[in-house]
Design a protein that fits this description.
The structure holds two protein chains of two kinds.
Chain A lengths: L1 E10 L5 E6 L4 E5 L10 E9 L2 E2 L7 E11 L1
Parallel strand pairs in A: 3-6
Antiparallel strand pairs in A: 1-2, 1-4, 2-3, 4-6
Chain B lengths: L2 H19 L21 E7 L5 H11 L4 E2 L9 E6 L2 H8 L5 E6 L18 H6 L1 H7 L7 E6 L17 E2 L13 H10 L16 E6 L6 E2 L1 H13 L4 E4 L7 H12 L3 E5 L17 E7 L17 E4 L10 E6 L5 E6 L2 H16 L5 H11 L1 E6 L3 E3 L3 H10 L2 H18 L6 H15 L11 H7 L2 H6 L13 H9 L7 H21 L10 H32 L1
Parallel strand pairs in B: 5-7, 5-9, 6-7, 9-10, 10-11, 11-12
Antiparallel strand pairs in B: 1-3, 1-4, 2-3, 13-14, 15-16
The chains are: A mainly beta, B alpha/beta.
């Protein structure tokens, strides 16, 4: 499992998806259940790398979210 | 008659046959006009005065009517068309009918644009007009009999999707055992393809008579694994899908590539999204050779800001641009609270089903998958590929024009006429020689009509005529040497060296020449890397060379036979 800290961004593609912009400047396409209303929130996130196919197709590597902790909104 | 005259005659016959047989304006059947009944109630009266009538003429009519009239529009003043409200329409018409200076008088009637469906949200679906969906509704069976597999998050039963054309499907997501959509993405995609149209409800779809096969490979949160997708594709093919829509993408997967390849080899058209990175680099499986990769354009017809582009993009289609008010793709889907909504979404996910729906519409006209793919690629209006939009934005109307221009019966008849001209009038020989030349010409020119006989001819066509497609896919039919006089040249030199082979060589050259000239005239053939008039010139010159070689071989044959006598 890997840990990432960064900012959540809602992407308006298809029915919508989530992107994490981590503190190292990387982007991660997030898969899994995330609570609503977190657009712009700073989070600490735990997950596993996935070779997932999705409808958001942002080109960012996939991270399957297992745990998320909101640092601030 | 001299040989040169026969050449002119044959060429003239060819051109005449093309003119006569090319689909043009058919004999029109028009109904007799029936005037609407005129009531004695009040209403708007239209009075068309003689052209050039003056204000004084109008006032004379007003006095007769006892009502005020106004010119309909200053810009149409010279037409002297006036209108005004009267209390008794029937009496007013009776008073003015036949009056000197009055061309016509009648109650105003309300006209409606018949080409638009009555779905109330249709006026907001700019994307359907952009892809040419109304052309499909007007000119085709609208996808009837065609099954489109939506390989996605599943499809929900929403009010604006005909349940009789929605199959049960299957789920390949282990945690979700049925194909019912719990995200909304797949349902929206299915709506673009086959939303019930003309039902007075909500929105319309590109191929409203098509059947939807839901195949769930993405979970409720929108992600899926490559083996689920590969299995879903295999399942769709086994279930008889004609078109597969893949509004999804991710990293390259060999198992997905194999599944797509098997689907395409079985004649299933696979349409896939280019991706939403906003950068160069198409996502997989959209970048595969066996998929038609679709980029997205917004309402202005330019590449949408989020759309991926580059190698792998074959076509563009409306995917929406929500930075413009009303610029999303509007369809019926679920609302996440157990109900349904009409949602504007954007993405290459939304562009892809416009092409899948168009493919269903084209297939329902009886075209083969190869012909549909070709017609769609030609419909973008760009003969050369460019990285942003591929071969351009999908246009269903233009695709129908292209496919109908390749009418197989026309080509067959054309080849037959030319064969008769050349074998009969030029006395190529008699009996078996004439027949064999005619058969060769009809076969060479007419084999191109085989697709109309159904998929069973695929093997024969690939073996005999479409051999480039076996190497480089359907687009290989545009290989320039294939669309040239090279084949006839070889036939003339190889078969023509022996007297029994000459009728066959002549016929073959005539058939190919006919095919090339017909393709140049109708725009149904497009050699690679030859845009516009260059391609037309290539086809025309090679077609003419083929015919000239046939004439030369005939002449040589006649001379030889004459010397022997």
């Amino acid at each position: 499992m890997i840990r990432k800290v960064g900012t959540l961004r809602r992407v308006d593609l298809g029915m919508g998806g989530w992107l994490l912009e981590d503190d190292a400047g990387g982007q991660w396409a997030l898969h899994g259940s995330l609570p609503p209303g977190l657009d712009g929130a700073r989070v600490e996130l735990y997950g596993v790398l996935g070779a997932e196919v999705s409808f958001t197709m942002t080109g960012a590597p996939s991270l399957i979210v297992e745990q998320v902790r909101v640092i601030n909104r | 008659m001299r040989r040169a005259n026969w050449t002119i005659l044959a060429t003239g016959g060819l051109m005449g046959a093309m003119w006569a047989l090319t689909p043009g304006a058919p004999a029109r059947h028009l109904p007799a006009p029936v005037a609407a009944p005129v009531s004695s109630q009040g209403g708007l009266l239209v009075v068309d005065l003689d052209d050039g009538s003056t204000e004084a003429d109008l006032q004379r009519v007003e006095a007769l009517l006892g009502a005020d009239l106004d010119w309909v529009h200053e810009l149409a003043r010279d037409e002297a068309l006036s209108q005004g409200r009267v209390e008794d329409l029937a009496a007013a018409v009776a008073r003015l009918e036949g009056l000197e200076g009055v061309e016509a008088v009648e109650p105003s009637v309300t006209l409606q644009a018949l080409s638009f469906p009555n779905d109330p949200l249709y006026p907001r679906q700019w994307h359907l007009g952009a892809v040419g969906a109304p052309e499909g509704w007007a000119r085709t069976p609208k996808g009837r009999g065609i099954t489109v597999a939506v390989i996605d998050t599943g499809v929900a039963k929403v009010p604006d999707l005909d349940p009789e054309r929605l199959l049960d499907g299957a789920s390949f997501v282990p945690s979700e055992p049925d194909a019912i959509d719990r995200n909304g993405h797949g349902t929206h995609v299915a709506g673009t393809i086959a939303q019930t149209t003309g039902n007075g409800l909500g929105t319309a779809g590109v191929a409203p008579e098509a059947t939807i096969l839901p195949v769930k490979v993405l979970s409720a949160y929108g992600g899926g694994e490559s083996p689920w997708i590969a299995a879903g594709i295999d399942y769709a093919v086994d279930q008889g899908a004609d078109v597969i829509n893949l509004s999804l993408g991710g990293p390259y997967s060999r198992v997905v590539e194999l599944a797509v390849h098997k689907a395409r080899a079985k004649g299933v058209l696979v349409i896939a999204a280019a991706g939403n990175s906003g950068r160069e680099g198409v996502s997989w499986p959209g970048a595969l050779a066996d998929t038609i990769g679709v980029a997205a354009v917004g309402p202005k017809g330019t590449l949408a800001p989020y759309s991926s582009w580059g190698e792998g993009v074959d076509l563009a289609a409306p995917g929406g641009d929500k930075s413009i008010a009303g610029g999303g793709v509007l369809q019926n889907t679920i609302d996440g609270a157990g109900g349904s909504q009409y949602a504007e979404l954007q993405g290459t996910s939304m562009a892809t089903p416009h092409v899948a729906g168009a493919a269903a519409v084209l297939l329902s006209t009886g075209l083969t998958p190869d012909e549909v793919e070709r017609a769609m690629l030609l419909s973008g209006g760009q003969r050369t590929w460019e990285p942003q939009l591929g071969f351009g934005a999908m246009d269903l109307g233009r695709a129908l024009d292209r496919s109908q221009g390749s009418d197989p019966l026309t080509r067959f008849a054309l080849a037959g006429i030319v064969a008769l001209l050349l074998t009969g009038l030029t006395r190529m020989g008699s009996g078996a020689r004439a027949v064999s030349a005619a058969v060769a010409a009809v076969v060479a020119g007419g084999l191109f009509f085989l697709p109309a006989l159904g998929p069973w001819t695929l093997t024969l066509r690939q073996a005999l005529l479409l051999w480039p497609t076996a190497w480089v896919g359907a687009w290989g039919a545009g290989f320039p040497l294939w669309l040239s006089a090279l084949g006839p040249l070889l036939a003339v030199f190889v078969l023509g060296a022996f007297r029994p082979g000459r009728p066959l060589a002549v016929g073959f050259a005539v058939g190919i020449g006919t095919h090339l000239i017909y393709g140049a005239a109708t725009g149904t053939l497009s050699p690679w890397l030859m845009p516009g008039s260059i391609g037309v010139a290539w086809l025309g010159v090679n077609g003419a060379l083929s015919l000239l070689m046939a004439m030369a071989l005939m002449g040589a044959d006649r001379l030889e036979r004459g010397e022997e006598r």
